[in-house]
Amino acid sequence: MATGVNRKISAASARSHSRRANKSSSFQLPAGILRTTLAVLFIGFLAWAYQAAQPPPPKICGTPDGPPITAPRIKLRDGRHLAYKEHCVPKDEAKYKIIFVHGINSCRHDAVIANTLSPDIVKELGVYIVSFDRPGYGESDPDPNRTSKSIALDIEELADQLGLGSKFYVVGFSMGGQIAWNCLKYIPHRLAGVALLAPVVNYWWLDLPANLTAEVYSQMKLQDQWALRVAHYTPWLTYWWNTQRWFPSCSVPSHSPDNFSKQDRELLSKLLGHKGNYEAQVRQQGEHESIHRDINIGFGSWEYTPLDLQNPFPNNEGSVHLWQGDDDLLVPVTLQRYIARNLPWIHYHELPGSGHIFPHGDGMSEAIIKSL
């Protein structure tokens, strides 16, 4: 019977054998393949990021895939269409002709001064009001080249095509109030008077004191601070920022209740009840061409600031009025006061206890119209 040979294996020899086995069994990618794989992954990430940052094309009214056209429209100099709505007395009978400019996330139906003005005042004064959908809102074509100046020229062309005469009034609310500043800058010779109702302030207007803007900016919601930074510094990311789900987006378009004062909340039920009939029309062509462009332009780099403006009515042939609630949680009253103090030709009306949507309050439309 054969006997096996007993061999003693030292511990050092066992460890050496184990190391050789482990080394021979490990798998390593060649350096060239690893670099190529990482490059492909990086390029793939960039492609995904680019696609995520691109807004979808707008659904233009009147096109096969777009919403229907229900409003009267004019054709502008560049081929775009602007939808409008006429209110109060017929323009041929009117003594005063007013163009109303709506705010963010609104449309031609949100002409508060027309919707709440008493019939007696309308008849007594002979007031005609036209509201319009700003580019990308409602049934007005988007304007991919929109600027602070272009919207003022749209307003001038609307007045010309409707035959409102050589001079007309402009009333702008919230973001529309900011656009009223543009009218004072670019078409002052066409204005009979202007009312700015809680006009949005751009924190990057150069003539505003840095310490004051920093103070009020820090009091905003953190999510809104970031949304405005994105709009100002990287506007090409605005669509992505406000549609991604990783971080909270801008709270303003969603009508967050935290943005409204005590008076605002009391007025809000009336406002939202009225808006339910047409709310779907506001963003029907796409959020980017309406809300996001508003934010980008409103908080972008301007070629002027309101503090640069000169009195358009040096002979008192017209007047400019700025109305502001002191409890406005969206537009800081401290910045509005600073602007009004430095423009002595502005008639400043500060409303104690009023919030951002004060124009919807009882009697406000009459006061605004009569001040003009």
**If you compute it from the alpha carbons, what radius of gyration comes out, rounded to the nearest whole angstrom?**
30 Å
Uncertain stretches of 5 or more adjacent residues: 1-9, 14-25
Helix-strand pattern: HHEEEHHEHEHEHHHHHHEHEH
The number of E-state strands comes to 8
Instruction: Trace the largest sheet across and list its strands.
Output: 1-2-4-3-5-6-7-8
The residue fraction in helices comes out at 40-55%
Distance between the termini: 124 Å
The largest pleated sheet is described as: 8 strands, mixed
Shape: globular
Keywords:
eight-stranded mixed β-sheet; alpha/beta; 8 strands; 14 helices
Walkthrough of the structure:
The protein has 372 residues and is of the alpha/beta class. It has 14 helices and eight strands. It has helices spanning 11-25, 31-53, 112-115, 119-125, 148-162, 175-186, 210-218, 222-233, 238-241, 262-275, 279-282, 287-298, 333-342, 364-371; strands spanning 73-75, 81-88, 96-101, 127-132, 168-173, 191-197, 320-325, 346-351. The protein has an eight-stranded mixed beta sheet. β5 (168-173), α6 (175-186) and β6 form a beta-alpha-beta unit. α5 crosses α6 (175-186). The protein is globular and about 90 Å long. The termini are far apart.
